[in-house]
Amino acid sequence: PDVHLSRYNLTINESDMTSIKGNNWIEDPIITLWMKHLQLEHGNNESLLFVIPTISQILKMGGNKDLNDTLNSLEAWWKDYIFMPVNDNNSASVGGNHWSLLIFSRHD
């Protein structure tokens, strides 16, 4: 596939770009790119965490050990705000029809 962008160790190709044109579904690589971009842009702010979709799915579908290990590796316990893109896929396979942005606010 034609590569349109390579940044943050991610490759965005033609089919990914098509997903942001018109009334198409936004693909995981675009959301991952954006969350990584936000994390790097706000990296000096230790109270913010932007989670990529694959990690959100692990948190959603994993067991208690996965949940604890993943949150520890992200240092999430000490964040004031956590932004997680979550889709409606409830299986281990690729899929889903709708994305939502879940925002955790320690203060609220």
TrEMBL record:
Keywords: Hydrolase, Protease, Thiol protease. The keyword Protease applies. GO terms for molecular function: cysteine-type peptidase activity; deNEDDylase activity. GO terms for biological process: protein deneddylation; proteolysis. Residues 10-108 form the Ubiquitin-like protease family profile domain. Belongs to the peptidase C48 family. This is Ubiquitin-like protease family profile domain-containing protein. It comes from Meganyctiphanes norvegica.
